[in-house]
## 1
Amino acid sequence: MECRLGCGACCIAPSISTPIPGMPHGKPAGTRCIQLTADNLCLLFGKAERPQVCHDLFPDEEMCGKNQAEAMAYLAELEAATRP
Ligand code: SF4
Ligand code: SF4
């Protein structure tokens, strides 16, 4: 599937443990990435500074669901299940 433009769930719900430009310690779960625009697009898309973890994440029907709310719920559940 294609990424749903303007969704941004995977840039908000999960924690990211590697540095993001502007967030040197990554970000906690449930916090918007500083690189996510108000309309939920990535300011670093296509740029070398985009974190590797973001390059490596591909849209997937199970993760993305039918809308942003479903994706947020799935990712929050996954985050809770994998919290150390
Ligand atoms: S959760 Fe899926 S559809 Fe939403 S921004 Fe991430 S990859 Fe795109
Ligand atoms: S850098 Fe871009 S793709 Fe990665 S979490 Fe932030 S907004 Fe999302």
## 2
Amino acid sequence: MSLNLADIRKDYSQKELSPDDCLADPAAQLEAWLNEAIAAQVNEPTAMNVASVDENGRPSARIVLLKGVEQGQLLFYTNYLSRKGRQLDARPYVAATFFWPELERQIRVEGQVRHVPEEVSDAYFASRPYTSRLGAWASEQSSEIGSKAVLVTRAAMFGARHPLNVPRPPHWGGYAITPERVEFWQGRPSRLHDRVLYTRDELGNWKTCRLAP
Ligand SMILES: Cc1cc2nc3c(=O)[nH]c(=O)nc-3n(C[C@H](O)[C@H](O)[C@H](O)COP(=O)(O)O)c2cc1C
């Protein structure tokens, strides 16, 4: 049986968006929409798809969780030796996308990334559940493993080594995205969607414009 994907379509009509509705700072606008997403009990409101590129300019993308918006920057945490970590350290630029179907909204963020200060990673790591902290040691993220048992054995080994306090692995920590281009998308009927783009003007101040859908 073949799937008839071409017939799957949805019209969007919930809300509107114009540059006049938007806050001056895109990070503040993102927080406002995040609050609405959380209030609307959107599934995984903090999940964002983060794309990186390899040395040949080939992109790869994966979901990570947004863990903070601090001084206009978006923070997420991962393994610095993972595929994404190595790519980001060599080419520190990302495109990140949120999609909240329940609100017919998308946010796109593009910008530069850097490691967050060690103490910021320490504080976030310490707030994670014990088993998640062990997992950060056990998982050599993105490397091939022969079986699930390898992972379980490593988790047990690190559990024996750190029965109470699990220190942050040096290869695990946060990235901060400094946005350079941010777009808010609101679905509208007849594919005439609303798009508001933030970029910086020549003085470095944020400006907005409307984009064709
Ligand atoms: C809902 C969801 C949340 C995730 N959150 C994170 C996260 O915060 N950090 C992370 O490193 N991986 C997270 N992952 C796993 C990544 O998508 C990915 O599999 C992993 O980071 C390895 O990616 P890489 O091999 O490209 O480095 C999450 C996956 C899902 C589906």
